[in-house]
Design a protein that fits this description.
The complex is a heterodimer of chains A (176) and B (339).
Chain A (H helix, E strand, L loop, with lengths): L2 H27 L2 H17 L9 H23 L15 E3 L5 H12 L3 H12 L4 H8 L3 H30 L1
Helix pairs in contact in A: 1-2, 1-3, 2-3, 3-6, 4-7, 5-7, 6-7
Chain B lengths: L7 H6 L1 H7 L4 H13 L4 H12 L1 E3 L6 H23 L10 H14 L8 E3 L5 E7 L5 E4 L5 E4 L3 E6 L7 E12 L8 E5 L2 E5 L3 E6 L5 E8 L2 E5 L4 E4 L3 E6 L4 E6 L2 H5 L5 E7 L1 H12 L2 E5 L8 E6 L3 H11 L3 E5 L2 E5 L1
Parallel strand pairs in B: 7-8, 17-20
Antiparallel strand pairs in B: 2-3, 3-6, 4-5, 5-7, 6-7, 7-10, 8-9, 9-12, 10-11, 11-14, 12-13, 14-15, 16-18, 19-20
Helix pairs in contact in B: 2-3
Chain lengths: 176, 339
């Protein structure tokens, strides 16, 4: 692959996925500068590859690579300097946009429900709901096996359902 | 069909159902829309599952447009630099250690008394060492590949790998330099000076590490740095705080400094504050590029205060002689002080 072709492909991918990468990275790194620098690093590393032929689908590949880079940096920074943050997953009340049809009480319940999830579960919920990755892709990105992804997702969804069901049923009753 | 038997939780866990509820895939949306029409008896379970899946959506964080633009530009630049680098042809037959090469070049550098001596060694395509050295009496300001600024004081030497942007931002210093480091949260910037190294993400600081002095000093002006010695003792500095390393005692200690005094050199100002004769003579050697011999040196209690802004050596010596009588002769860069 010629350098010009590579550069052109990379810049296309950059334009296409910057937002997605930024959103994902920000929730892992919890720091805008680190996220932006890691995205740059990701594309510089991509440029060093001989070709991109072995990458079947760029989106999960990019997310997965970014995840590695950020976790590495967080580890290094923790050892070296300033940022005390563990690579933990940020999906908090501020990240949730309550749909119009849902009242405030339900919204609060959703927030409570989310807080009961583990970092892993939050990441999986995010990758499934927000990014639209399937179980197999999520397994690749997070480095845990397919079945574990299913189990983690399933327990997370069960948890969300348990907390939200009373309110949802109430809404259904009123409609009926 | 298996879906007839599904309860709400099973719908929730079904990938294709999720994809329909979240609107991810066209084919799933049309399949489930049709299926629900045909199975009104499942409406309660289906509704519940949809409500839970669509109860919330996750907020999109929109990076600022200017930041995206500047990141894109930076990437453009970095990719171009990479292209330049990979074009360098490796000269395999000249794969000698750059350390030996550096010492040879240093000798040449001294003999031709170059004011600024920059060398590129291509021992491998990957490793290119850049050296900057400044003789006594001169100063040199330059930029590192990442845009960080360095001001080198007299009698000082700094080297780095041309490739350092892509790996680690690390420079080696003998002498004194003032650094203004460009922020990069992935690649910390490190100054190695003798037994200690100073690491920063994006800051300005001064390092004084002459190899003929028993003291290495790091003075932080802005930001935050970490100073580590070769026995892994470390100090994290805040602005206004400095680290002092005693080479003899192998001790790393914190101290407070006056930034006017520490940075005076970079603005062409000599500041003596309770300075001993040793300190005065070393400073003058560095500043004016002379070597000093002292006859009848004063005792340990001798101290001097004074500020000189862009003054000639003669003026400085005359001022000193007002408070402390001395005669001096200057011949071929050799200065003799007689007390």
């Amino acid at each position: 692959m010629s350098r010009e072709n590579k550069e052109e492909t990379l810049l296309k991918l950059y334009n296409l996925y910057y937002n997605e990468l930024f959103n994902y990275g920000y929730r892992v790194a919890q720091n805008e500068d680190i996220t932006r620098d890691c995205i740059q690093d990701l594309f510089l590393q991509m440029f060093k590859r001989a070709s991109f032929n072995d990458i079947r689908d760029p989106k999960p590949y990019l997310i997965k690579s970014l995840r590695f880079i950020i976790i590495d940096v967080l580890k290094k920074n923790k050892k070296l300097l300033l940022t005390p943050n563990e690579p933990n997953w940020l999906l908090s009340a501020e990240d949730i946009q309550i749909n119009n049809e849902i009242d405030e009480a339900t919204g609060n319940r959703i927030k409570i429900a989310l807080d009961t999830l583990t970092h892993r579960q939050k990441e999986i919920i995010y990758l499934r709901f927000f990014s639209g990755f399937n179980y197999e892709e999520i397994a690749q990105i997070t480095g845990i096996n397919n079945q574990s992804v299913r189990n983690l997702f399933s327990t997370a969804i069960k948890q969300l359902r348990k907390i939200m069901l009373p309110i949802l049923l109430m809404a259904i009753d009123i409609q009926a | 069909m298996k879906y007839n038997q599904y309860n709400a939780e099973e719908f929730l866990n079904d990938e294709s159902f999720q994809s329909f509820a979240l609107g991810h895939k066209e084919e799933d949306v049309s399949f489930w829309t049709a299926w629900i029409k045909e199975h009104p008896e499942k409406i309660v379970e289906v509704n519940e599952a949809i409500k839970i899946l669509t109860a919330f959506s996750i907020r999109t964080i929109n990076p600022e447009k200017e930041k995206f633009e500047s990141d894109l530009q930076q990437l453009h630049k970095a990719l171009n630099e990479q292209k330049e680098l990979t074009k360098t042809i490796p000269i395999r037959s000249f794969r000698f250690s750059w350390k030996i090469a550096a010492s040879i070049v240093l000798l040449i550098g001294v003999s031709i008394a170059a004011y600024q001596y920059v060398t590129y060694f291509t021992s491998k395509a990957e490793q290119v060492v850049v050296e900057k050295s400044v003789p006594g009496g001169k100063k040199l300001t330059f930029m590192l590949p990442d845009g960080s600024k360095v001001k080198l004081n007299g009698n000082s030497y700094l080297k780095y790998d041309q490739n350092y942007l892509l790996k680690q931002r690390s420079v080696t210093l003998i002498g004194e330099a003032y650094f203004e480091v460009v922020k990069d949260s992935i690649n910390p910037f490190t100054v190695v000076s003798g037994a200690i190294s100073t690491t920063a993400l994006g800051t300005s600081f001064n390092v004084k590490a002459y190899d003929n002095e028993n003291l290495i000093e790091v003075a932080l002006i802005t930001g935050k740095v970490k100073v580590v010695d070769n026995r892994d003792n470390s100090l994290t500095l805040n602005p206004g705080k400095g680290a002092r390393y005693l080479v003899d005692g192998q001790q790393l200690i914190a101290y407070e400094f006056n930034s006017d005094e520490v940075l005076a050199w970079k603005d062409g100002i000599i500041k003596f504050k309770n300075a001993s004769i040793d300190e005065v003579s070393r400073t003058l050697e560095r500043w004016y590029g002379v070597s000093i011999e002292i006859i009848n040196p004063p005792d340990q209690a001798w101290r001097i205060n004074g500020t000189f802004e862009n003054e000639s050596l003669e003026n400085v010596l005359n001022s000193i002689s007002y408070t402390s009588p001395l005669n001096y002769t200057l011949q071929n860069n050799k200065l003799t002080l007689e007390f």
